[in-house]
Design goal:
This protein is of the alpha/beta class. Helix content is 49%, strand content 10%. The protein has a single domain, classed as TIM Barrel (Alpha-Beta Barrel).
Length: 440
């Protein structure tokens, strides 16, 4: 059996089994093959640190892409685009909530991404990120320690599976009803510092996990320099002296996760505040030596918006929903399966229906919840169907890499990111459905 064919079989075994121990065994085999091909899991921290210190040129924005389904095929498409554009600075990510509703525990996600790199002949650092390790504000209000402990378990599991990039999102605890700005941000910066300290205590030898923080919940009010300063000053005061902190900061500039859905199911145009993004990115670098600001909820923006992100020197941009939309709306995606998934939503996700919503609005917002229950059916589609959809989305990836100036970043990555041979513990391979929002 040829090596590439063997990889296809391993991926199918990894995705189709529900047995966590089998997932660990298959993923471990893929990881070993990846190492033999000089493909290694890495933290992007040193590149971001260099950018914050002015030792790495700016003018590019790192795409961080959430893959909710057809993960193997879309990851392969991403690696093809990276090879075509000589790109090294790009991130695969999955949010806390997505792990649950897409039925992709960390160890499965890692194995599939590495398998895609092997299949496409990619080598070098591969960055996998736990996006939106988010505090559930309601649960935190009831039992703060229980909620923080649950996040620590998730983070531990993710790092054990090779997620060496962690985005902490405690911005849900910001309390705008309090008068003083520091008190508004207090729970946010204290939780972020506590989780940073936890990460530093469990990160593998030789790896400085990249950690991000967030000052404004996406969909809320736009962030200000005062918000950033208040958060960072409080965070640095709380963090143990001398400990490496966050290397990027997520802010709110007018977007919302998944976009604003109109009654006909289309997406409303968004007025994104690029001036805020530019100013806060510069402020984060000049005052706190971070790579800059991070933009969430951006994949459904109009095409003409994307070349503005490198112009503002935004450090990173998170992209997800549009790729899911392209899969569902592709003429290659079987209509009978799509109808089956939508009918399942109407029977099983009625709690997602908001007062006044049209059926189109409900389906658009809720259809991601069908990805997990139908993961195996989608994986079971004919190869030409899956590869055809991936090729359609590949063109979008290529467009984004070019607009974000992510091409020709391979040399920068190779200069600042050095391989570390880490023996992964593989963790508990979380299988339980995880709650929370936090996805684009």
């Amino acid at each position: 059996m040829g090596r590439h064919k063997e990889i296809d079989v391993l991926v199918r075994d990894l995705i189709m089994t529900d047995d966590i121990e089998i997932k660990k065994k298959v993923a471990s085999e893929i990881i070993d093959i990846a190492k033999s091909k000089k493909i290694f899991l890495s933290s992007i921290h040193d590149l971001y640190k260099a950018r914050g210190l002015g030792k790495c040129p700016g003018g590019f924005t790192v795409p961080a892409i959430n893959l909710r389904n057809l993960t193997y095929y879309l990851a392969r498409a991403l690696f093809r685009v990276a090879l075509k554009n000589n790109a090294g600075a790009f991130i695969f990510e999955i949010a806390k909530s997505e792990m649950g509703y897409t039925a992709q525990p960390p160890i499965e996600y890692t194995g599939v991404i590495l398998a895609a790199a092997i299949k496409e002949g990619y080598s070098g650092p591969v960055f996998i990120q736990a996006d939106h390790c988010q505090v559930n504000a309601k649960m935190y209000a009831v039992n703060p320690q229980k909620e923080i402990d649950a996040l620590k378990h998730l983070i531990e599991d993710a790092i054990a599976a090779g997620f060496f990039n962690i985005d902490i999102d405690s911005s849900t605890t910001v309390d705008l009803e309090k008068k003083e700005l520091k008190e508004q941000q207090r729970a946010n910066f204290e939780i972020c510092a506590e989780l940073t300290k936890f990460i530093r205590g469990i990160q593998p030898a030789g790896v400085m996990v990249s950690v991000g923080g967030e000052i404004g919940e996406v969909g809320g009010k736009n962030s200000t320099a005062e918000d950033l300063k208040t958060f960072m000053d409080g965070y640095l005061e709380t963090l143990p002296k001398g400990m490496e902190g966050i290397s990027k900061i997520s802010i709110q500039t007018g977007t919302s996760h998944g976009g604003v859905v109109l009654p006909d199911g289309s997406i409303a145009q968004v007025k994104l505040d690029f001036e805020t993004l530019k100013n806060l990115s510069r402020y984060a670098r000049e005052q706190y030596k971070m790579a800059g600001a991070v933009q969430h909820g951006a994949s459904t923006l109009p095409p003409a918006a994307f070349n503005k992100f490198p112009e503002t020197d935004a450090a990173e941009i998170h992209l997800a929903t549009q790729f899911q939309n392209m899969m569902f709306d592709s003429t290659l995606f079987p209509k009978d399966l799509r109808d089956k998934m939508y009918n399942w939503l109407k029977k099983n996700c009625t709690e997602e229906m908001k007062p006044g919503q049209t059926e189109d609005q409900f389906v658009y917002k809720a259809r991601k919840k069908a990805l997990g229950p139908f993961k195996k059916e989608i994986m079971g589609l004919p190869e030409e169907t899956k590869e055809g959809i991936a090729r359609e989305i590949e063109a979008k990836f290529d467009f984004l890499f070019k607009q974000l100036k992510a091409g020709d970043t391979k040399k920068l990555v190779d200069t600042h990111i050095k391989p570390v041979d880490v023996k992964l513990g593989l963790g508990k391979a979380t299988k339980a459905v995880l709650d929370g929002q936090g996805d684009d």
